[in-house]
Design brief:
The chain is α+β, with helices and mostly antiparallel strands. 31% of the residues lie in helices and 29% in strands. The chain is globular, with a radius of gyration of 25 Å. It binds glycyl-adenosine-5'-phosphate. Glycyl-adenosine-5'-phosphate (GAP) binds next to strand 11, strand 14, strand 17 and helix 9.
Length: 439
């Protein structure tokens, strides 16, 4: 057990770098602050988080379809959504040390958190978080465009396109996973708050009278998703916003929060956004964004329930929740107890030695398993050290090929959590692992 404090934070950040989950971006040039690159293991973990979200939100449902909208978008979209006017945080500067801070995140609004000086801070100014750039070759004539600060607007802007082409009718949803960009004043806590990050958002369009019921449904369903993937129940909570925290258009918002080493913080927001977004885009674009029910003749603007999660932030939370250390034979074993669906590699193939006679059957086993699962292959070092290296990156099963394999065509399958080993014939290996690694 590792205490849920700075020790855990440092250990996870250290492991991430040492084993290739997350690297500081542009590190060889001194690093680009608060921007990160996902290494060979991180990219697999992040893909698995997104894949599990897509599976639960799109694949296993008949009422949600997918979308991949553009990242660059014209000002009209952000004018209508309210982001140009309101997507800002209050920023203060310290006259003494020059540091910039987000006023609403400061414990004491009169004291600079960087240098501790009190009374040195400027009045708060609203700072818009959107990144602006130019599209077109000539800066003078180029059009101003924005990098999206959320994926959500892509779903509202495409509401009519999807409605007309997918034959869906409310209640139905549009889901999207992709990068978003915010010029955060105070990025930090590793990949928790960054300027470039990935979101997993779904807009669920419902008849207005059913919106409260669907809001409650999605709060429950989203909590269940994290728990099903192994989040400990005592480190996850649903926090309903007080009335004074709600956006003016929302009739209800709840955050899924995880207990990070620095305290409870948000992984996802689930909001009842009413008809605000569709109405704003309809007014601004002059396009009707409503549903016409051919059976009843009713025409209405659907209300929207939005579960909006962060993929990068959630991957980090799963890493923190999975990190464990235990004493084994007077030694400390580090093990990532990730759910097998999230683990970067599902199986590691480990020939007991580098002797040529073991390499052929090892390659045979690798070829047998690779079409089914992401596999690692490692023939260096003593077998005990290799087991530990796999434990540390969360690989649920190791398959060892030894000299007996040459006689009995069987291998040893070792379980990450219990460290129990069993002998399995190569011909039965795919079926055996399929039973242990369900989709
Ligand atoms: N469409 C609604 C929306 O974007 P949000 O609460 O601002 O809502 C949703 O963002 C989720 O996106 C957050 O719960 C968080 O997980 C993630 N997120 C937001 N800003 C982030 C940042 N700067 N870095 C990493 N993740 C972020």
């Amino acid at each position: 057990m590792v205490p849920n404090d700075d020790t855990l934070f440092d250990k996870v950040v250290n492991l991430s770098k040492r084993r290739g989950f997350v690297f500081q971006s542009a590190e060889i040039y001194g690093g680009f602050r608060s921007t990160y690159d996902y290494g060979p293991l991180g990219v697999l973990l992040l893909r698995n988080v997104k894949e599990q979200w897509w599976r639960s939100m799109v694949q296993l449902r008949h009422d949600v379809v997918g979308l991949d909208a553009s990242i660059l978008s014209p000002p009209a979209v952000w004018q209508a959504s309210g982001h140009l006017a309101n997507f800002s945080d209050p920023m203060v500067d310290c006259r003494d040390c020059g540091a910039r801070h987000r006023q609403d995140k400061m414990e004491d609004p009169d004291t600079c958190p960087s240098c501790g000086k009190s009374g040195s801070l400027t009045e708060a100014r609203e700072f818009n978080l959107m990144f602006k750039t130019h599209a077109g070759p000539m800066v003078e004539s180029a059009t101003e465009v924005y990098l999206r600060p959320e994926t959500a607007q892509g779903m509202f802007v495409n509401f009519a396109n999807v409605l007309n082409t997918s034959r869906k009718k409310p209640p139905f949803g549009i889901a999207q996973i992709g990068k978003s960009f915010r010029n955060e004043i105070t990025p930090g806590n590793f990949v928790f708050r960054t300027r470039e990050f990935e979101q997993m958002e779904m807009e669920f369009f419902v008849p207005p009278a059913d919106s409260e019921e669907w809001y409650r449904y999605w709060c429950g369903a989203r909590m269940e998703w994290y728990l099903d993937l192994g989040m400990p129940v005592d480190r996850l909570r649903l926090r309903e916003h007080d009335a004074d925290e709600l956006s003016h258009y929302s009739t209800g918002t709840s955050d899924v929060e995880f207990e990070f080493p620095w305290g409870w913080d948000e992984l996802e927001g689930i909001a009842n956004r009413t008809d605000f977004d569709l109405k704003r885009h309809a007014e601004s674009s002059g396009t009707k964004l409503e549903y016409h029910d051919p059976a009843s003749g009713d025409r209405y603007v659907p209300h929207v329930i939005e579960p909006a999660a962060g993929a990068t932030r959630t991957a980090m939370a799963f890493l923190m929740a999975a990190y464990d250390e235990e004493e084994v034979n007077d030694d400390i074993r580090t093990v990532l107890r990730l759910d097998h669906r999230l683990a970067p590699y599902k199986v590691a193939i480990l020939p007991l030695s580098k002797k040529p006679e073991l390499i052929d059957p090892s390659n045979e086993v690798l070829g047998l398993l690779q079409p089914h699962w992401m596999c690692d292959y490692d023939q260096t070092q003593a077998i005990g050290r290799r087991y530990r290296r796999q434990d540390e990156i969360g690989t649920p099963y190791c398959v060892t090929i030894d000299f007996d394999t040459l006689e009995d065509r069987a291998v040893t399958v070792r379980d990450r959590d219990s460290m129990a080993q069993e002998r399995v014939p190569i011909d039965a290996l795919v079926d055996h692992l399929t039973g242990l690694l369900p989709a």
